[in-house]
Amino acid sequence: MAGHVGRPRKKSPKRRGSTAREEILDASAELFTTKGFATTSTHQIADAVGIRQASLYYHFPSKTEIFLTLLNSTIEPSTTLAAALGESDASPTLRLWSLVAAESRLLLSTRWNVGRLYQLPVAASEEFAEYHSQRAELRDIFRSLAADIVGTDDPRIDLPFHIALSAIEMRPNNGESPAPLSEEELPEVSVMLADAALDILHAELPDDRVARTLELIRLAGETED
């Protein structure tokens, strides 16, 4: 009898995702955010997906690479939007409002609370220098936009970035997205946090801020494509 072709599953799929790679990321996100990085093994990840451990390495060379992929998923869309905003003629207040809303929107859109991954001790490792660089770049954009509003010497310029990240503490980690991505509306929490970021700078809220932000997000997506 002919043997199996390719890399067969041990059992039928039990993860969300259109590909084995997406299923591996889903399982890893759950395990890393609930059990931690150090105590999660590739064997546990493979078992959670329903594939052989050897098959996992076909998609990712290491557990570290999986972790980096998840980390980058929390930062890359925001840096793309930030670059698009930099080329727009929007005011500093709208740009900052949009960044806070977009970053918190992303953090609220995932099944698992992947924003918590940067809080794990392993995230400080030099192995994740690529992520550290992108995160620093995004933080600096937040600071620069806030400085355009209140000045570079104002200590409040560090706050909008942290306000956006507070979405991590305001959502569950139960495998259900509290606010799936939508092209028609922003999550109430994202609007609240973006408003708070400008309020703490004593800046006026931009007119039609939600609709204009959704348009900026759309244009950023087209630029990425």
Automatic annotation (TrEMBL):
Residues 41-60 bind DNA. Gene3D superfamilies: Tetracycline Repressor, domain 2. The keyword DNA-binding applies. InterPro entries: Homeodomain-like_sf, HTH-type_TetR-like_transc_reg, HTH_TetR. Residues 1-21 are annotated as: Disordered. It comes from the Bacteria. Residues 18-78 form the HTH tetR-type domain. Pfam families: TetR_N. Residues 1-18 have a biased composition (Basic residues). PROSITE patterns: HTH_TETR_2 (PS50977). Keywords: DNA-binding. PANTHER family: HTH-TYPE TRANSCRIPTIONAL REGULATOR RUTR, HTH-TYPE TRANSCRIPTIONAL REPRESSOR BDCR. This is TetR/AcrR family transcriptional regulator.
